[in-house]
Design brief:
Radius of gyration: 18 Å
Strand order of the largest sheet: 2-11-8-9
Shape: globular
Helix content: 25-40%
Structural class: alpha+beta
Distance between the termini: 55 Å
Length: 189
Amino acid sequence: MPSEWPQFTIGEVSVCNADTYSPKERWSFVNYLDTGNITKGQIETIQRINSDEKLPSRARRKVKPGDVVYSTVRPNQRHYGIISEPRENMLASTGFVVLRGVDGVSDTRFLYYYLTQDRVVEYLHSIGENSTSAYPSVKPSDVQSLKINLPPLPAQRRIAAILGSLDDKIELNRRMNRTLERMAQALFK
């Protein structure tokens, strides 16, 4: 049970913002994910920026397969997701906290499902509303200081797998509904 599991902070059981891009690396192009381009795990667009174009100053966070991106800007807008298969030369905005679990300690998807709970999002948003910036925002340290009761790793993986399969079914239903809507519109026309 959750109360019997040992308590940690997210910072103790995850790696945060581990990899940063430097312009000295001179990539020929960048696939850039900004905070507004992902909502509740659904990526709307990824902007391709060629080397002859100006790279946004916030395009700095490198992502690896399975990383969680979690927007620090207006947490209640739910700009977060898991980057399952990052595109080549993919960078995320510094407006994200990029997290991954610590090998042998925490499952990244379990951390993702914890961070996306309504109560956690609302708590982070309340911190953001009290920030001194022009809009509600939190610092990576606010996310890292969140407390989490962590079950043993096999239980984390089972829980994350169950929640992931539910997410997959929800996405399949969304796609089927879009297809049916298109068919109905075509028939109506």
